[in-house]
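[recover] target loaded
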């Protein structure tokens, strides 16, 4: 088994100290930081994402795998700049105003980062205008909104309207998701993409960048 396969396997098992150790070893062996990221860490995370989508693993396993990925990233980050890894793009993410549910939103963040997308996480209870202003300030092209309550999903319409009002509707893609959100709802508010789960959301986001 190559060091990258080993790294990917330990990441899928959520064994953070082992992942960290292998990233360090790969660097010491002279492996390229970009290859360590893509063939070791991201490859492992993408397998976890697929398994999650197919109900072969569940939320706890995903969160543990994500912790292992973050542990590896800590070691790798300083070397990535020098390897000149291109950021794949930037997304603004949050749970909408009035809604405090963040487990699904955090999974979206993990899956996006697993695909190499930089995420500005605004947290929960986020005003429509904050999504748009942050996208403008950060020069981000993707806005990803999560809502778990039927009473808060309407805020997503506000995000679309604010984007129009603030003159950036043609510059951003607005993605929506969360348990009560549907494809029909997405169409009714004029958002761009709906996905049912976090892994699919990251596939769509990557295809947009
Ligand atoms: Co709340 N809650 N909750 N809750 N809670 C629900 C959502 C509810 C369905 C429970 C129920 O009644 N059966 C119900 C909503 C009913 C409705 O609106 N139709 C409900 C309610 C009513 C409430 C309160 C109002 C309860 C009260 O106080 N009376 C209150 C509201 C607080 C607030 O937000 N203002 C409340 C509070 C809470 C807790 C704080 C206790 C806790 C949240 C803790 C936290 O998030 N840190 C909580 C929880 C845990 C739930 C349930 C049990 C689980 C939600 C969850 O995390 N699921 C939930 C019942 C349920 O869903 N079975 C419920 C796991 C998570 C991985 O799934 O977030 O759906 P989910 O994410 C999925 C997809 O939806 C998708 O990806 C994930 C899978 O890959 N996804 C996206 C999510 N965002 C996406 C964005 C995308 C794409 C995909 O693109 C951008």
């Amino acid at each position: 088994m190559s060091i990258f396969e080993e790294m990917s396997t330990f990441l899928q098992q959520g064994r953070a100290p082992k992942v960290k150790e292998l990233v360090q070893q790969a660097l010491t062996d002279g492996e390229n930081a970009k290859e360590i990221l893509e063939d070791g860490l991201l490859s492992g995370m993408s397998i976890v994402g697929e398994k999650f989508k197919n109900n072969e693993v569940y939320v706890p396993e995903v969160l543990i795998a994500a912790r292992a990925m973050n542990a590896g990233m800590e070691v790798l980050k300083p070397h990535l700049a020098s390897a000149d890894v291109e950021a794949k793009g930037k997304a603004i993410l949050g749970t909408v105003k009035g809604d405090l549910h963040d487990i699904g939103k955090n999974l979206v963040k993990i899956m996006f980062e697993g695909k190499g997308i930089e995420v500005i996480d605004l947290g929960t209870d986020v005003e429509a205008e904050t999504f748009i202003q942050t996208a403008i300030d950060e020069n981000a092209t993707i806005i990803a909104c999560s809502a778990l309550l039927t009473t808060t999903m309407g805020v997503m319409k506000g995000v679309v309207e604010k984007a129009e009002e603030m003159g950036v509707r043609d510059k951003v893609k607005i993605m929506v998701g969360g348990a009560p959100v549907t494809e029909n709802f997405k169409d009714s508010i004029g958002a761009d993409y709906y996905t049912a789960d976090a892994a699919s959301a990251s596939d769509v986001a990557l295809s947009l960048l």
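[recover] notes: The chain has two domains: 3-82, 90-208.
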